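[Automated response] Your request has been received and processed.

Submitted sequence:
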Amino acid sequence: LSSRLDRIAIDGKYRTAIKPPQRPHEPINSGIQSNSKRKSNMFSLCSRSSDEEQKQRTLRYDQSGEYRTPESQQEEAYIANRIKTSKYSILTFVPLNLFEQVIRPANFYFCIIAALQSIPPVSISGGTPTILVPLVFVFTVTAIKDALEDLKRHRDDNAENRREVEILQPDGSYITKRSQDIHVGEIVRIHDRQRFPADLLLVTSAKGHAAPYCYVETSNIDGETNLKLKQSPEGLNSLPSFDSVDRESLRVLMKDERASKSYQEFKKRINECLIIADPPNGHLDSWSGSIRNLDVPVMREEDDNAPDMDEKEDFKLFQNDFSSLSYGKKNVNLSVDNLLLRGSELRNSDWIYGVVMYTGFDCKIFMNNQSRQRQRIKRSSVEKLMGRFIGYMAAAQFFICLMCAILAGDWSASNQDAWYLYWTIPPELDGFYKFFTWFIIFAQFIPISLLVSMEVVKFIQAQFMQWDINMYTRLRGKTDKFCTVQNSNLNEELGQIDFVFSDKTGTLTDNSLDFRKCVIGNENYGRGETEIGRAAKRREEEMQQQIEYEQQLSNVNPDDDDGSQVPFRIQRMYTSDIGVALERNNNAPHVNFDEERRLRKQLKITCAAQQGADRLDAHHHAMMVRRFLTVLAINNSCFPVIDEETGELSIRAASPDDECLTCFAQFMGVQLSERNPPSIKVDIYPDGLLADDGNSEKSKKIEERWEQLAEFEFTSKRKRMSVVLRNLETGKIHFTMKGADSEMIRLVDGWKKNKYSSYVEKYLEEYSEQGLRTLVIGEAILDAEWWDNPESGWKNQYLQFQEDTLMQDERDEGHIKGSCGDHCRKCAWYERIELEAKCELLGCTAIEDKLQESVPETISAMLDGGINVWVLTGDKQKTAENIGIACNLLEPSMERHGLLFKLTCAEPHQLADIMQSAIETISKFRLENKYNKQNAGLVLNSTALKTIMDLDQQHDQDLQSLFLTLAKECKSVIGVRLQPNQKAQIVEFIAEQTGARTLAIGDGTNDEPMIRAANVGVGIAGLEGTAAVRASDYAIGKFKFLKRLMFVHGRLHYKRITTLVCYMFYKNGLLSLSSFYFGFYNGFSGQILYNEWAYQLYNIVFTCVPILLYAVIDRDHTDKYLIHHPQLYHISQSGEYFNPKVFFTWIAESLLAAFLLIFIPLSCYDVTSPDHTAQSAGIWTVGIVILTAIVFVANIRLTLITNSWIWVTHFFLWGSIAAYFLAIIVLNTSNAFAKAGSDYFWTVFRAMNSGRFWLTVFVSTLIALYIPFTYVSFTTLRRNAKIMENEHSARSFNSIQSNL
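Generated structure:
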């Protein structure tokens, strides 16, 4: 049943799809027919066929503009909006919950033990299933927990389903419905701070065409509290508000009881339309669709009276007068910017209207959680190794039980003549029964509670990580961000990382962009030095100091050729002035530009020529400046937003680069003032937005109106963005393009022959050396026929292409994230039209992206901790190298010693020669310079990587083998010009071929494949969305927190968890193996020494809490010490705390201690009487002595490895021992718990009244702990000696450096 139940985990809950209720107005037969084809909705979601999953979401409208339901067309109905996350009802709770608990492996195992205990011939408890007591307790506690959780789900479901939502009826009236009664196609009105009850297509806002957008908060979906902009689609964004709005203030006058005439205009435009969108899926960042045959107002051509006409038309629209509009049928494209996701919240808007697109479990938030369940389940290395050990111990348990059964049968056969044994069964059958008897005795030999204990410990550890104030930051000055743990199963894996793969932009850098420089034509604008440039120069100076020192050293001791002299080497340290606030030249956002007057002068020339009689062609360079700035203003995804209180215009964009470039254009005087697709308005201010005297110069502005015809979005694979526009004044088509130079070189028309290309290339190289992010700008001005010609124009081809790719093909999968393959249809078609446009080179831009705080120290610490650090970026090689130097990833001395290697060619034989030579060079250097710990570095580009990884290439295995060997030898690696799929490919290759534990960290959508491929994925909450955070196992706010996450939390969690595993086997072995040794005294009859109830309480009460407390709070060093001594990370990284040697040492110790704890008490109580009664000690007396010694040894053994002694530790340690004595006294004062009856009654008091009891317990405990005490002391002293030796070497090195 559970395998068929349709559940989707959301925030720890389970959501179950249910059957949609029938609408009241539908005929009964029609409702039955529409749903008869579907399976029961409880099982419908997970049992959907592939045809259903690929079925597009289609909404049809009739001639009157009203939605036609699928039922009215004899089609299958969409599921209802009612959700049911609860699992149980009153009738199903007991049987279903009991069934779910029984099928859990640990509980099922104990149920088998309980069944065996109920069989008298094999039971050790007289046929009484004593294990049922703790088992029923666990079942009851779990059932109560599940009941309370499910009760909360019922309440949440009722609150969600009964939320009231306003529905706009076809006649313009409003009715209120419950959320569960909403259906696809209905129009809802959502108020400010109200959550969206379903996935909605935004139709219009409260302010209508004056502000056809709204803001939403998605913190319930992705944890992001910053507001996101959503817009109405083309054709609907020109609709006036459905409500009464004041034209001047844009404030809603009143809440109308009926919609205005604008609603009838909406119905008129959408009549006989077809809305087609993606089938339900869980992709939160992408959505596509179209509105077919929408009546879209035709844009008029620009003329001299345009401003007056605009004013008049705007006034008419506010009066709901549409008489002056003319319409044309058009297919309007839809994107994720038009979709309002269920669970997000409307902000800063009175209300909006939206069409319901997806309901219930078809909503993206539910589908996304379902897709997350299908992802690869990550398991830590400790968990995998523990699974092997459990398998070994299970095999050992089986053979021990089998051996005991054989020995028991043999003993029975050899003692058949003993008259006092009363044999009733043959020896063969007795041996068979004894196998199960011993199986019951060894039931706790494998600690089944280990998995539960680990889950509890990891959960508490995760809470401490999330509460760590040292990993707190405030993003953008308004969002609090702590560490977020999304997969606590990998806590200990953080302490064993061998390779760290990091993105650069937004991960190492702050993504706080400033426009610094640009090239337009053959002129360079902008001066100054960047932080990364200064850091690179500083490292070069340090390298020069090293060269001078080595020269002095060779002059002093010229005969020293054996390499015994320790060379001086500049330490990796924080040597740049990164993070120092520099004086800015202006207060404009995202602009730190120092030649604005010089550049603005050129813009002013073009404006004066346009307003006067001069020809613009006479001012060629000035015209290039204007075109350059205009491209920056319109080739983007930005939206201008006017603050209602201040009236200031600000730029909002999803891409930080777009926002930076648009802000620079605005700063220079080319302002994107209105974007209402397809209409775009640009205001040009010759003297800038503010004159020198501070007064506004808006009277001098020149307005330009554009019509956006097509947009080819930026992806990490394409590395460029193109926008096709029409200038409404000239009628010309402007094909604008911006992108990385690697792509633009082949797309710009005649790059090699262009008179500006050499100049641009020169400054691109210079900018890259300064660590600046560069983009090349191009534009083509074409005749209208190029686009509009019905036969050869690109318009019809574009519309047909949009039609063909509306339904996503498997070839296009991953296009938005940049991880699509070489056969992606969209990438191929976009490139085709971009080549056809033949863009002209205008220039390039340079943006500074500063390094985050403490990045150099973090990377230095990781390298010192034995971690290989790879930075994988799409930047140019020189840019990446300088950033690598600035953040201490690459050292200038690498190149001096010939240890910096570069793989930048595509020829296989050449690559093989380079790699072979590099490997030999590294080996030779380390052999000749045994005291020089200089690391090797590697720079790799995408071309070389593709050749190495291409399985179709000849000798590919040899290339991969050489690359793998070189990658192991190089601690620092930089990958440049890499695509997202190549990043993931590298991570998978290293992990699979080396078996190393990998960690990938990034902040953007393009990093998601890499994060999912790594053993541990870490997302940084930055400015590029939350895709990386959602795909990660851990989320942090800054790169520097990775050091604390690994060196403190990771290392401590690894040590604690591994100790927990070994100790649990150790303490359970003490109890089980003592019974095994006692079998040599009793003929392996299965007779036990202990009271059965005390046997069950051993793991639950006597030894449970101290080890759990240890696994949560124990620490061998302070946080500060671990941070400043990254070399300690190598201990956990190399697996010194958990390996076969360590594990079986604990098992051997348990074998020896159990033997001593049986042999010594039995020897002490063997002959003489323990007290004045002269009676020999019985089995229960000796059993109490042995059990007492076992409890003492198990608890005191933990103290030998405990480092953190606080009052809580003392309380639970000694409290566990006190609980044992209390339990033994209770068990000995009542016959109800004793299977031996009066023989067990009052035994503990008789035993403890004798001095022999205490002496035997003391001696047994002392001798059993002597060997582990000696071993722990020796290993601790040896480890501390290594640490002191390393510290002494470091102090000596620092002393030499400070003297120099």
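Summary generated for your ticket: Confidence is low (pLDDT under 50) at residues 1-53, 561-582, 691-699. DSSP finds 40 helices and 40 strands in the chain.
If you did not submit this request, please reply to this message.
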